[in-house]
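Chain X:
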Amino acid sequence: MDVGAEFVLMTTISLAYAALAKQYTCFWTRGLEDVDDMVNRFWETVGPDGARRQIVLSTRRRITLKLMPVQAKADRTWLIGWLLARDKTVVSSIGERVLVALEDAAEFVGEWIAACELARAFEVKVTEAQPLTVIPPSFYRWVQKTDPHGVGITDPNGNPVMVQVA
């Protein structure tokens, strides 16, 4: 893992399969809501002058989720159901649904933080199942809309009105 990597810290995501979904809090996520790891399928040629040229045919996000300790056995068991499901989805904190496949289906290991059985954290590594055709909405930043004087605008319930910017 690159030490200078960008992480979204302490966020809540949902994992979903079939008609079931469960929220998990993550220490961090990588690749879900920002450009971090991309897996490309490309075509490469070498011209008569020796110059290499590549055309990216498709790209997918490689997503890593570091789940906070999952204390309830039922929640850990639910994770196994998600792993076994043919169609797995990760739902970002802004509600974007991403169909995913396991990066390495061979193993799934819990980490016992401070050697404590009740503090089992999991690192889930997945790749987007479908190639990207547009820039995902989560790659844009959300900021509070302001009036001409720079004062934040809120809705009638007092919630900030958010807008998306590149």
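Chain Y:
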Amino acid sequence: MMPGDLLLVAEPDYLGTLAGRDEQKLCGKWMPRKKTTCARTSGHGGDCKTAELMERQRAYRRSHPNRQASESHKKSNRKARIANYGLTLEDFVSCCPTHSRPLRLAAYAHRRMQVQPSD
């Protein structure tokens, strides 16, 4: 530890959320408007934040989860898996005969649904 490094000292209100972070170096930049120091770790990106704001944002994220439908979650995972190999969906369809027919049929059905005129 170097002189001038700040250590996180948890206040009783924040003990549950700051557990396990008590030896990480903090940014420590003084924020005159709030009259406190930044509670984010050193080298963070973006703006500085107080411990109170970070706790408020954690509570908000917990109470407002970003839910994703299972179908779109499966689709995202499939696209990511294919992209990890450096392939596009078209490359995957052309190189994988076992998957190409069902994927081509699904793409065809999707296109037909989009083209049909509404009554």
